[in-house]
Amino acid sequence: MAFGADELRVLRGALAVALHPAPLPDEDVQACLRLAESVDEAVREAGRLRAFLLADLARYRAALPGSAAGYLELLQDALAAGYDPRPEDLMALRTLRPAPVATALLDRCQRIAENSVRARLAGRSPAAPAPRTRLLALQGGRAAADPQEPKEEPAKPPAKTPAPPRRPAAPGRPPADRPMPKPSEVFPPRRKPTPPPEQRAAG
Hints:
This protein is mainly α and 203 residues long. The protein has 7 helices and no strands. 52% of the residues lie in helices and 0% in strands. Mean pLDDT is 74; it is low at 141-145 and 199-203.
């Protein structure tokens, strides 16, 4: 079963709500319910197709050996869909054994039949898809926003620890908040000496 882009978006939102319940808008709730209905319809359609496939398989098996090619093809499709071969299928494949496809299918069906017999003897039924529960309510939907239900109080943030008092600065040192002086501030540039008046006149 393949999902479209919109269906994947709805499915992603439903999974996020399942992990972290939160109130949902009515539009999102309706989208989730529509997606659940689409999945139910797809499951019902798959069941109808499986019933048609098995009916065709029985018709082709009854028409053997003239319908060997169609029967072998339908049997492969049925096995891929989880079909448990019947004794009639094993008998039909034995009559078609000279064909390589029939020989390979006979070996495959015999293994499936043996596994089914072992499962029944062990008290376990063959693996079958469990029926899906119909989605009638969505966790975190409108019911989650009901004001009558008690809500958990949000956790209070931890109290801030007071900062330790600053240590007094050592005598002779500038406080830590005061920026370090620049070398030009500590040692100002020397000015050029002014020549005597006699030299200036001579020049």
